[in-house]
Amino acid sequence: MSRYSARLSLRPLVERLAHGARAGIARRAVGNGLQRTAAALRHRNYRLYWGGQLVSLMGAGMQAIGQAWLVLGLTHSAIQLGVVGALQFLPVLLFTVLGGVVADRWPKRGILLLTQSAGMLQALALWMLVVSNSIQLWQIDLLAVLLGLTTSLDQPTRSAFLVEMVGREDLPNAVALNSSFVNLARILGPALGGLLISTCGVGVLFLLNGLSFLAAMAALALMRGVELQGQARRDDAAGDRQSPWQSLREGLDYVRATPAISLLIVVVGLVLLFAANYNVVLPLFATDVLHTGAGGYGSMTAALGLGSLCSALWLAWSHTRPTIRAVLLSTLAYVALELAFALSRLYPLSVALLATAGAAETVMGALAITVLQTITPDHLRGRVISVYILSFTGSIPLGYVLAGWLTGLMGVSRGLLLCLMLCLLVTGAGWRWRGSAERALRAAAAG
Question: What is the pLDDT at residue 234?
């Protein structure tokens, strides 16, 4: 056999070996990508938490759409939709920072068991009032306030509890996965809720939400306390000698003195104030603009969750490096997509625009909180996160009232357009202000 013939006979073998090597590398790359995407799920406590919260948040999504539809059926008033939404989130505005203090001083798992129990009782009370045909608007208002009080303690505790379940190494992945199951619940909950309203009536949504809290409570009860990791503490005992008010003041002073943090809290908080008013505008878009009814309302709400879920999974997989510029660009994209939605009169296009707007909103929020965690020292992180929740979530009640007032005054489309024009002004101001914030972020990363 000639040397040339030998090379020909060996070529198929070499090609098969090369192909096998490339396939093996690809399989390892896929496996590494999946492991990277779900790194936090290797912790048993977090797996329990993830499953329990997914069920509970699906119930919360059903209750949200049920409550809005119930208020709309009782009043058909955009202002009343805004008032109920504002009453639910107003306690978050007033008490979240104090909730952060409680979360730092008491066992977080016990606090979460308490808040889940309170949420279950609130949902079951709504169900009983609806099925007994005795529901009135003031009762919805009162129960919305009670749910807001529960949320003001639940949110900072839940955020601080993540690090105890997964440790600091897997915390960024846990944040991304948290966003993924929140948005998966936003898809499944409203979609199922819209279907149930059409077939069974609104009352069953509150019953199912009440029962869903049992999954979250069971997950918390089954966690292994010995596997929970301690929180980071100061090197000295100064923090232990502070009163709660002194501790809050220290955190607020740090936020005010740090350009990157103050920029993100102001810009993203104001954009959410003007733009995150879905509970007010979507029911009216469904009924008055797109004429799709309860099913269309549920589908539009689910589209927001679908877009958010996809972007959250992408963030978990990609480990994107957060920058101030990236936050502002995602903010601009979010506002532009909502502007297009406000102008759309085609139902399929509106659903697609909501999905992409949900994706941009999730990227904006996830990058912003990651930047905050990158800059903030360990001993201040809990207080800074509570200010973040206060600004990002606490701005929603004021936004609900504003959206309801503008909708009643100008109509739903024009009212939303005016809010979004204000968002463009805020984003432009943040872009001009970003220089000192980016320098602070680079200095924190270098340190």
Answer: 45
| Dist. CA 379–CA 377, nearest whole Å | 6
The DSSP symbol for 40 reads G
Query: What is the per-residue pLDDT across 248-264, written as a single tens digit (0 to 9) for each?
Result: 787 788 888 888 888 99
Q: How many C-beta neighbours within 10 Å does residue 431 have?
A: 16
What does the alpha-carbon distance between residue 60 and residue 193 come to, in Å, rounded to a whole number? 10
Residue 277 Cα to chain centre, angstroms: 14
Written as six digits, the tokens of 32 are 């590494």
Domains of the chain (ranges plus CATH)?
42-222+244-446 (1.20.1250.20)
Token representation of residue 362: 């999730």
Alpha-carbon distance of 98 to 108, in angstroms, equals 14
User: What are the start-end ranges of the H helices in 225-287?
Assistant: 238-241, 244-257, 259-275, 278-284
The secondary structure of 122-140 as a DSSP string is HHHHHHHHHHTT---HHHH
pTM across the whole model:
0.70
Q: How far is Cα 205 from Cα 196, in angstroms, rounded to an integer?
A: 7
The DSSP call for residue 142 is H
- The distance from CA 57 to its chain's CA centroid, rounded to whole angstroms, is 11
Q: Secondary structure of 76-103 in the HEC alphabet?
A: CCHHHHHHHHHHHHHHHHHHHHHHHHHH
Q: Residues 355, 304: contact at Cβ < 8 Å?
A: yes
Give me the amino acid identity at 56: S
HSE-up (13 A, CA, CB side) for residue 176: 24
Amino acid at 316: A
Terminal-residue alpha carbon distance, the chain: 66
pLDDT-flagged residues of the chain (< 70): 1-36, 168, 186, 230-242, 319-321, 378-379, 381-382, 394, 397, 440-441, 444-447
Q: How many helices (H) and strands (E) does the chain have?
A: 17, 0
3-state SS class at 187: helix
Q: Is 443 exposed, middle or buried (0-12, 13-18, 19+ CB in 10 A)?
A: exposed
* CA–CA separation, 203 and 140 (whole Å): 13
